[in-house]
Amino acid sequence: MDRRTFLLAGAALATAACSGPSGLGYWNLFSGGDGSRMMDMVGAIDTRLDAVTLAWGTPYYTKLAMAAAGGRAPDLAILHLSRLPGFAPLGLLDPFDNDLLAAHGLTPDRFPPAVWNRARHDGRTYAVPLDTHPLVLFYNTELCARAGLLENGRLKPIRGPEQLLAAFDKAGLALAAARDVNPWRLFWTLYRQQNGQGLLDDAKALTALRLLAKIGATTRFTDNNAAVALFGSGQAGFFWNGEWELPTFQTQHTPFDVAPFPQVYDRPAVHADSHSFVLPHQRSRDPQRTAETVAAVAELIGQSLTWARGGHIPAYQPVATSQEYLKLAPQADYRSAAAEVELDPPEWFAGAASDLQSAAGATIGAVLGGTTSPDGALDELKATLVRLQNTPRPA
Amino acid sequence: MKRSGFWFVAPFLVLYVAFLVVPMAIGLGASVTDEGITGHAAFVGAANYGELFQDPVVWSSLWHTLIFTVTSTPVIVLVGLVMALLADRAVPERWLYRLAFFAPYLLPVSVVVLIWNWLYQPGFGLINDLLTRLGLGEVGWLSTDGMAMTSIVITTVWWTAGFGFLLYLAALQEIPHQLYEASALDGATPFQQLRRITLPLLSRTHQLVIVLQILASLKVFDQVYLLSGQGGIPGVRSIVQYIYESGFTRFRVGYASAISYVFFALIAVIALVHFRLTAARGSKR
After folding, report:
1. Does A113 touch chain B if contact means CB atoms closer than 8 Å?
2. Residue A389 CB neighbours (<10 A)
3. So what CATH class is A134-271+354-390?
4. Which of A105-119, A170-184, A248-262, B222-236 has the lowest mean pLDDT?
5. What is the fold, at CATH topology level, of the domain defined by B55-251?
6. Is A353 helix (H, G, I), strand (E, B) or coil?
7. Confidence label for B285 from pLDDT (cuts 50, 70 and 90)
8. Is the pTM here over 0.90, yes or no?
9. CATH of domain A3-130+274-334
10. Contacts of B43 (CB under 8 A, 6+ apart)
């Protein structure tokens, strides 16, 4: 190789390195099974996405907010819909163009209203929901059959607090109570089932906390890893958590099925969240790239069936009502939950991995563990809420 | 003459002003506004300062920081000293001790935490596995507040004792050999030599190591943040961690700046007190 060829080769290499990945930047927080399914979906679509996976929860939202605040965010990102009130009003997200969405078939009538309404802020659409992921009730079919809780191989409907406690007492319950936000999700479900309004109706909150104290007494106080291990190895008849744990038990060949979250009080309701696509704020937004991004969103949502294998309920109704999805067991068995979903209260301090969830999760977890009384926990919860509500909202 | 002195200092001065003085002034300015991360800021006077003195989390995280400093500093200094005394002996494998004692200090914090996170795991972690093999009960290293603080201190000692070790080792090598020879001729035992020669001659190094370690411990953040994992452990949250959370996860840059300044004042007071003490001792000599 003479000097000229060498220099030319070097220059070519440098150009290649500088131009770099030409696809659209896409940040998400999916690891494990969800992560690989999302990668399958990214690989299956025509638009080229350069996906970056960051650690779930607070670290992800910190990075996303910083990127958007700097105005040089990725083209596309995943956001828990419950975090929208903390992001959209701060100008950290750019709104979608409704006409552009409609051109790709992403119209409001094709999404569950409960979810679509939360995707909007100030009359504009800021998110396109991919799924809803509610709490469900996993049950071990062998243990529950032995306890006489099944009917034709399915769990007999559980109604009211007494039936719930009796069932847990007979077959055993595993749930994440220690160092987890799960207790908050359970509480919010029971609170909203009583049609509890705002933050916070004392009497209804106390009813929910008292039931949780009794439920806690039927179970071992563990974190989520231990709870998953207990249910997965057949040491507990019930596991109360989100549907996202489904693939874990499928790979472990646990004899199990899934039921929607039981209706304990007046109305069906279940805590849920929704992974949705958002456009993080870019200071100089390129309309061409934005159009490509929306096309990519439509393509990814078209792959919702792959996503549903991980347990999530597709938000896009053409997929959610398709024969392929309805045949997907046990996922389709709890699809009714999509109509009953209750996201976190629409407050800037609430939402997935938020201050509210971790603070309230610790308090309510202590009720499940039996170290705090329901009355004491109510006082603590109210103090937390007062503190959060009095915190000046960031500018 | 004076001018040329200035030009020699200028490169440092430029960096000092650009990366220390200016950011500090900006931070002080931000602490009296409600600045968020998107740049909008309105003057709020002393509201942030008023709020932080009533914020229980500020006090609890200051308390955790204090506990961490009080427990970790003596251990780190002592371990560093003992390691230096051991490695200073003229044994053939001296290089091995020096390397082994100093190596952890070279690791980045993420690697350190990764290692210890695995060691602390319940069920299959090395430590708990060993305990169960010995017929002892498992310890939830990171599951209660008290144990989590202990585990963080252990990790920090392992990681940073090498720094004090290095300073002590350098100081030990400065002590003239004749002192030991002379005292040996006078019949001093090795323990007497340690007590009467080595430790007194290390006194300046003690001061240096202790002060640097107190300042480092007060600023603890990385290992606490990383070992606590998603959601954190409120019972071990350090003050710097709370500053980080206020600014970057709750988007309240103004409030975070105010806490930083109060913490800065605290550290300045500690440094001044130390300065006074050592200055007083120096003049007595």
Report:
1. no
2. 11
3. alpha beta
4. B222-236
5. MetI-like fold (1.10.3720)
6. coil
7. very low
8. no
9. 3.40.190.10
10. B32, B33
